[in-house]
Structure formats: C-alpha cells, structure tokens
Amino acid sequence: MIDATPQRLALGLSYRGSAYRGWQSQPDGRTVQDRVEAALATFAGAPIRVACAGRTDAGVHALNQVLHFDAPVRRDTFSWVRGVNRCLERDIALQWCRPVGREFDARRCALGRRYRYWLLQSPVRPALEHGLCGWSFQPLDGEAMRTAAALLIGEHDFSSFRAAGCQARSPVKTLRAIDIERRGAYWRFDFDASAFLHHMVRNLMGCLLAVGQARHPPAWVGEVLAARSRDAAAPTFAADGLYFVGPYYDAGHGIPAYTPAMDWVG
After folding, report:
1. Is the pTM here over 0.85, yes or no?
2. At 115, is the secondary structure helix, strand, or coil?
3. Three-class DSSP category at 177
4. Which residues contact 108 (CB under 8 A, 6 or more apart)?
5. Annotated catalytic sites, by residue?
6. Are 164 and 233 in contact (CB under 8 A)?
7. What whole-number distance in Å separates Cα of residue 260 and Cα of residue 126?
8. Rg (CA), the chain
9. Given phi > 0 = left and psi -120 to 50 = alpha, else beta, which region is 72?
10. H-helix or E-strand spanning residue 18
C-alpha cells in the first residue's frame, strides 16, 4: 500500500564497476544508478530515485557507496536488502539498510570520503585480478611516493588533478591523508578527503607513479599542484584498481562504515 508519509532510508551498496558506465544515470541505462533504481522500483512497485554520496567513474568499484531515498512503501529493512538484491545483477548488492531522519542526505551530510587503489607491481600483467587492480611493470620507490604525497596534504586548489568535464563548483578540496603501503607484489594507496573532483584520484595516482618510477623527483608533484593546470600533470591512470571505500558521517546518523568486502580488499 502506498504510504502518504514516505520513510527516508539509507542504503549501503557494493559493486564491481567493470561492466558499467559509472554511477550516474545515462540514457542507455548501463550505469549502476539505473540498475539500482530499476531494482528498487520492481521491489517497491513504484518509481524510486536515489541520491548517492559520491559518483564513481566507469570501471570504478565501490565497497560502501551510501544512498538515500524516500520509500513509497513500508518494508522491514532486512526485506529491502534481500528483496532488492534478488532484482540486481550479481556484481551489485545492497549490504545494509537503515531508517534515517528526513534531514539526512547521503552527499551533503558526508564529513569526508575515502578511496583505495590496489596496484600490482610485476613484469607480468594481472590475470586473476584483471579489472580489479592497476599494474606497474616497473619497480616503485615507496619513499619517493610518500614524500611526493606529503606535498598534497591540506586544503588546495586541485585544478591540476581535475578532469575537463568536472562539474564541481570549486576545485578547492581538503586532502586529509594519503597512505601508501606495500604488501608483497601489491601496493595499496588510501586517500581521504573532504570530497574529490572528477578523476582526481586517478590523476593523483598517475603523478605518484611517475615519481615512484623515477620519471620525476618528488618535488615535481608540488610543482604540478601549484600550476593549477591539468596540462602539468601525468596522464589519468587506469580505473581498474580504484575502489570507493565510502563516505563517513557524524555517528548520530547511525550509518555503517563497514561492509564484508572491506576485508577482501583490505
């Protein structure tokens, strides 16, 4: 039965982005948003539009993308998860559902966002991990990359790392942390910021790898930042190994910050 006072719900979503043209809805329907809204509509028996915490590019994965919507029907939160997942492709799945106050907005209420990039360092390209990690056939210098990354921390104009079609009102963002860790043949890059520009993480990765491969000294990254020009930076790196870990919020909203996939891509 249609409810006259819709309940606002928040959802946590994981997906493998390889088969999709990114998050945001497009006319051909081949986006994560299109698939999620279609599944919600099938389960609820009414059209549903969702808002997300952060748009992801084509090929980018998500561990805890957060959505909100106003539900036209009343269902148990567990039923939303199980019922909608039956209508979704196998590479997209709701992880949790929570009722939230009408003031909650997945994007506007986020205090920050986190991304993770997994990279294989090997003379041989990925096979089992194809589409799930980036690749460098050249050895990487971790200390040089960390030195370069430190120059990016803080509030800056990140125009040099912004895609030409970026729709953000301002290129000024606060990059809170970049952590770089090697695990065997793999490198993990963690990014934490107030928000990210279109292609920002992939452009940062391109520059950090240029330093790690000794094509530029660490100080070059500071020069790229100061230039405020996309032409000054390295090419945009592959989307394959990029994961939207998710947003984080004030604890009062009760939004889960963990999904099981975080252990798999830990």
Report:
1. yes
2. strand
3. strand
4. none
5. 57
6. no
7. 24
8. 19
9. alpha
10. none
CB count in 10 Å sphere of residue 112: 15
For the four alpha carbons of 202, 207, 208 and 209, in that order, the dihedral sign comes to positive
Q: Six-digit token pair at 130?
A: 């194809």
Question: Which residue's entry shows tokens 């493998």?
Answer: 16
Residue 119: strand pairing partners? 134, 187
**Domains in the chain: ranges and CATH:** 7-109 (3.30.70.580), 112-244 (3.30.70.660)
pLDDT of 1 > 50? The answer is no
- For the stretch 122-161, pLDDT in tens is 999 999 999 999 999 999 999 999 999 999 999 999 999 9
256 in Cβ contact with 226 (< 8 Å): no
**Cβ atoms within 10 Å, residue 239:** 22
- Residue 239 near residue 17, CB atoms below 8 Å: yes
State pLDDT tens for residues 79-88. 999 999 999 9
Q: Distance between CA atoms of 101 and 107, rounded to whole angstroms? A: 14
Antiparallel, parallel or unpaired: β 61-71 and 7-15? antiparallel
Q: How far is CA 188 from CA 19, 33, 50, 151, in A?
A: 23, 27, 31, 19
CB 235 within 8 A of CB 112: no
**Helices in the chain by DSSP H: which ranges?**
32-44, 77-85, 142-150, 200-212, 219-227, 261-264
25, 47 contact by CB (below 8 A): no
pLDDT at 166: 85
Q: Give the DSSP letter of residue 259.
A: -
The residue to which tokens 């084509």 are assigned: 58
Is 60 exceeded by the pLDDT of residue 2? no
Look at residue 39 and tell me whether its pLDDT is greater than 90: yes
The amino acid occupying position 78 is: F
Which tokens sit at 54?
């952060």
Length of the chain: 266
